[in-house]
Amino acid sequence: MKVLEVKALSFTYEDGTPALKEIDLTIEEGEKVAVIGPNGAGKSTLLHLVAGFRTPFRGSVRVMEEGLDEHTADQVRRHIGLLFQDPDDQIFMPTVEEDVAFGPVNLGLDRIEDRVARALRSTSIEDLAKRKPHRLSHGMKKRVAIAGVLAMEPSLLLLDEPTAGLDPHSRSSLIELLRNMNKTMLIATHDLEAAAEIVDRVVLLNGGVAFDGGLAELMAQDAVLEKAGLEPPQISKLFKRLRGMGYEANILPVTLDQGVAEAVRFADREKGRSRDRKT
Ligand code: ADP
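# adenosine-5'-diphosphate complex -> structure
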């Protein structure tokens, strides 16, 4: 099932700034997609449009097969959970559990306690239920905001720069959380290393959709990367250099795990060679 279907979407701000041009994007149920691109490419605008915050626009947006326009925005928004970049923009109740309950209560949903318990469990913050969210660390606030979104059981999760501003430990644990989460998601991010760990597919915005496919495939397209000013993950850079030295990898690794697998393959091949030399 198509959770999101965007066709020929263009948008210009009231002051005349063009932000999106002829964007096509379809996301199937269960897919995790990152939207990447240089500053000003329109990543946040795309998320906000899909979330129903800005109408009218040119082109069409369908979420769970419902067309989005100024008349349907309230209804269509019910399918969507948007995680803001700054959790302080999203958290405002006195305790974590009240904050997580706020969305579903506001939407008039049922089984509130159940929803809250499940959302706290799936973000591993059950023990924070009675805490004051504003006193928590930035990483924990992000989890509270994610729990609040999950409690509404949206069909599509939109995340705006989820790893921004996190310390290395909170960043890796958030990546782990999103990687293991069984949800359809669209993530706007600068952080290609994080995208590599979480998503199966990347959409590069750079004056329209400049690329749509696997990150490894994109990392091999030097001209596209350079035009968009994108830096490959460190592990991809390492293997590009090795390629220049004659070590050809089966795939260009974009994650540490893939890099380790390729390095082991190189090492095994070298071992085989030295054994052959001895015999
Ligand atoms: P990104 O998230 O990729 O950095 P944005 O969606 O924030 O890109 O911005 C796309 C373009 O729209 C940029 O040129 C930006 O300056 C402009 N823009 C963003 N928000 C507004 C706004 N509220 N009013 C006018 N122009 C805006």
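# post-check
The beta strands are 2-12, 18-28, 32-36, 58-63, 66-67, 80-83, 156-160, 185-188, 201-205, 209-213.
Residues 13, 15, 17, 19, 37, 39-45 surround adenosine-5'-diphosphate (CB under 6 Å).
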